[in-house]
Amino acid sequence: MRFAVALLVVCSGVARAQETGCTGAKGKAGSSAPCSEMAKQIAALLDDPQVARAHWGIDVTAIDGTPIYSLNEGQLFQPASNAKMFTTATALALLGANTTFETKIVARGVFNGATKLTGDVVLVGSGDANLSGREIPYVPPSMRPKLAPGQTPPLGPPALRYLDEMADQVAKTGLKVVNGDVVGDDTLFPWEPYPQDWSIDDTVWGYGAPISALSINDNQIKVTVTPGDAPGKPPTVTIDPIAPYYTIDTTALVTGAAKSGSHVDMQRAMGSKVLRIYGSIAVDAQPDEEEVAIIDPAEYAAAALKSMLEARGIVVTGVARARHRISTDSTGFMQASHEPLATMDWSKTYAPQRPAEQGTSVLARHTSPTLIEDVVVTNKVSQNLHAEMFLHNAGAAVLSDGSTVGGARVVRAFLEHAGIDKDDFVFFDGSGLSGHDLVAPRATVRLLQYATTQPWFADWRRSLPIGGEDGSLVERFGKAPLKDHVFAKTGTLGEARALSGYLDCASGKTVIFSIMVGNHTPASSADREAMDKIVAAIAAAN
Fold first, then answer.
1. Beta bridge partners of 253
2. pTM of the model
3. Are 94 and 349 in contact (CB under 8 A)?
4. ∠ CA(59), CA(63), CA(64), 5° rounding?
5. What is the pLDDT of residues 227-250, one digit of tens each?
């Protein structure tokens, strides 16, 4: 009956087409036969029993914002990683495409000549998300070297390469003895590792890594489990990068019989440095590789740097430790994040400011890639930590407050400035991992339309995944006519999914679209398949 009702509403509105446009199942209808047919196709797709019980929202407009089609466009949905578009647009507009972040190693104490320091060596985090082995700029798969069958991909740069380079700089100063500690300082942001309503299940894994102004290797390590040479033998576990941090418990890990599959799991209690790896892996299975979150990135970075300094002959008498700034703000998140920015100057760009410290001297420096190159990485591969770093850096730059709520306040102010209804969105984080995040499809479409009018649009648009080509759309829209003609951000979180962006249509025109779904059947991809068919229908009809 759902299809029949929708079809009746669509067809009955044709007489009003000139004043309403094709806005579908909410009582408005098509401005042309192709558009009306598109509404019927979408209604039929959403009437499929596999997706009919889910909650759908769709909004489609021309580049200038002229309505084409809508369904529940003003209702709220979990945006999942569509949230990254709002965060990265804010960062690009307010911080600027060419902004960089400088990480320093400083001496905090008193020198006896050049060789002896009484005090601490401090690694000072600047909000750089790319202290890692990640290769930047992002290279799409089609431009990467092709491997012969059976050929192993070449190893990328070492995960801690920039920390190594800074350790070399420290050694070149002539320093030989540190009578003090090695400190990882992430006080540019308050220590708020997890935004509200992040799932506890996610915190073990790299995609749920904690947020820190001193982030290292995406705040994760790679754990590889390789089967032993016979059933019953212990598998081999390797860690990359190697650093003195986690204790690995493999007492319940075993090599299984041939063809028994891989059934490896990993657990870590909150706050614990014991990583328990258990289960079985078949003797003939490929190695199991997992990205595991680092629970305190600043402490981990300090431990890694201490090892590097000692390997270079520098004696450190103290320990590796983190220096955090604990938040004392007890204001409710909704109240604080909705406070307006009355004195905001939208014509300028901002840079995070760290107060200068007395009694320090710089031993080493590292400058990050430009902000736009990190925006490309963040949106292409949907990198959660980097999106969170943009949120915090926006707060640090505009408000001198690198807190989660400070960043959310800046994002909200920017989106209202862009003409998005204040009641059409709420963000508790920058990546979309929070279950509290809510967005209306029309808010996403408005952001996409506003962006087309801005000087940073070309940079931001190239950060979106391209259908059949790269990023999170590399395996979707792989055939003509949609291949290379869908430029959109994906989103997946539990039983929510989203896809929003720009679409080159059959007529040669480009339209803006946002498709969001909530409460779909768990562990099902039927909603994604319906979503892609909706995109095809939009492209064919416009």
1. 279
2. 0.93
3. yes
4. 100
5. 999 999 999 999 999 877 899 999
**Distance of alpha carbon 528 from alpha carbon 517, whole angstroms:** 9
* β-bridge pairing 236-240 and 220-226: antiparallel
d(CA 389, CA 91): 10
- The CATH topology of domain 1-27+37-75+440-454+464-542 is Beta-lactamase (3.40.710)
Q: Which of 63, 326, 79, 287 is nearest to 186 (CA)?
A: 326
- pLDDT, position 408: 98
Q: Using an 8 Å Cβ cutoff, are 182 and 123 in contact? A: yes
Q: Give the DSSP letter of residue 205.
A: B
DSSP states of 404-425 = HHHHHHHHHHHHHHTT--TTSE
The structure tokens listed for 364 are 């080493």
pLDDT tens digits for range 310-345: 999 999 999 999 999 999 888 999 999 999 998 888
For residue 523, is it left (φ>0), alpha (ψ between -120 and 50) or beta? left
> Would you state the structure tokens that stand for residue 507, as one six-digit string?
């007529």
Return the number of other C-beta atoms located less than 10 Å from residue 171's C-beta: 18
Q: What's the rounded Cα separation, in Å, for the pair 6 and 43?
A: 6
Backbone angles phi, psi at 112, to 5 degrees: -110, 95
Range(s) of the chain covered by CATH 3.40.710.10: 1-27+37-75+440-454+464-542
CA distances from 47 to 68, 514, 541 (A): 21, 19, 20
At 58 the three-state DSSP class reads: strand
